[in-house]
Amino acid sequence: MSEWISVEDRLPEQDGYYLVNVLCELANGVYLAKFENGATFMWHPFSKADVTHWMPLPEPPEVD
């Protein structure tokens, strides 16, 4: 499993989906977010909450 990376340390190198930790008045927690244009995590279309940390998505399980 990957380690959490602070957005203060670095952002992802590629656009795509990531797990993010969000600090928000109404919705603190871990969410799936899309990283766009090399600069922005979009985790909810109506929120401007602070993403503090991110990590790549884990590999999906193998199915026989």
Protein traits:
64 residues, mainly beta, single chain, 44% strand, five-stranded antiparallel sheet
Describe the fold and architecture:
The chain has 64 residues and is mainly β. The chain has one domain (5-56). It has strands at residues 5-6, 16-23, 29-36, 40-42, 50-56. The chain has a five-stranded antiparallel beta sheet, with no helix packed on it. Strand 2 (16-23) and strand 3 form a beta hairpin. The mean pLDDT is 86.
Q: What integer is the average pLDDT?
A: 86
Strand order of the largest sheet: 1-5-2-3-4
SS element count, helices: 0
- Specify the helix fraction band: under 10%
Order of helices and strands: EEEEE
Strand-pairing-aware structural class? mainly beta
- Total domain count: 1
The radius of gyration is: 12 Å
For the largest beta-sheet, the strand count, sense and barrel status come to: 5 strands, antiparallel
Rough outline: globular
Number of strands: 5
**Cα distance, first to last residue?**
22 Å
Query: Runs with pLDDT <50, length 5+?
Result: none
Give the percentage of residues in beta strands: 35-45%
SSE topology:
Layout: E1 5-6, E2 16-23, E3 29-36, E4 40-42, E5 50-56
Antiparallel strand pairs: 1-5, 2-3, 2-5, 3-4
Give a quick precis of the structure:
With 64 residues, this protein is an all-beta fold. The chain is 0% helix and 44% strand. The protein has a 5-stranded antiparallel β-sheet with strand order 1-5-2-3-4, with no helix packed on it.
